[in-house]
Amino acid sequence: MNDLSGLTALVTGGGQNIGLGISKALAKRGANIIVAQRSKEIANDCAKMISNNYGVKSIAISCDLTKQNDIDMLFKESQLYFEKIDILVNGVGGRLGIDSIKIEDLTLDQINDSMDLNFKTAFLCMKSVFPLMKKQNFGRIINVTSHITEGFHAYSAQYNISKQALVSLTKTAAVEWGKYNITVNAICPAVGNEKIKVLEGTDLHNLILKMIPTGHLSTSEDDVGSIVSWLASKESRSITGTIQYVDGGVHINGLGSDGDKTFHEAIKKTTRVP
Predict the structure, then answer these.
(1) Is residue 269 part of a domain?
(2) DSSP string covering 131-196, please?
(3) Which of 111, 137, 194, 247 could form a disulfide with 147 if both were Cys (CB 3.0 to 4.6 A apart)?
């Protein structure tokens, strides 16, 4: 297990879903955690749980990371409490409730909204953390993207575009910032969550599992969190600009990438796949 004792990690979206699993995994290995979450209640509950369960320091900061003023506040408050930030995990993102839409029906506003959430938030946080990491000559940045950057989904162009942009930013930053001992990597997860659990035993759930070479969905803490913890460690100093797929191999063929209408209509009627 990678030792992260003495390091401080800022996890955006760190209070729920994949972000929560990552926060737990980092804390388990000794890192102090800054939980950045739009919901104040969720952020506070997560920070309290981490401090109580893992014996590390943790603070909660409620913010909307699509707004520059909130990002400025996030980094100001973080530095007042911890003075340094060694690890940045950009975990904020999502589909904005749009599960299935053809390119010809997409609006520019929908694309811009997706870029704001999935790309702009990470870009602005990376710009804000860079001076701190440069000064201390150490930094680990991990961007949470999606397996769709390799096996593209049909009917989700706005999401695909925004996540692919984050991959490009990851690689460019790795090239520019490597000389400051800052590594920048991306993870592409496909995890099970509460919305997927309700499908267990259904034909749709079986269909999803058949598309995954390993036959199972990954978990946020044990699978995704373990990879993030390794990328955040000092031992990963030579690993940068990489895309780590934590998806059971689903990126190879893509989940519903063939445009199967049955698959996408079933998703719309039940719940979305993360």
Answers:
(1) no
(2) HHHHHHT-EEEEEE--GGGTSPPTTBHHHHHHHHHHHHHHHHHHHHHGGGTEEEEEEEE-B--HHH
(3) 247
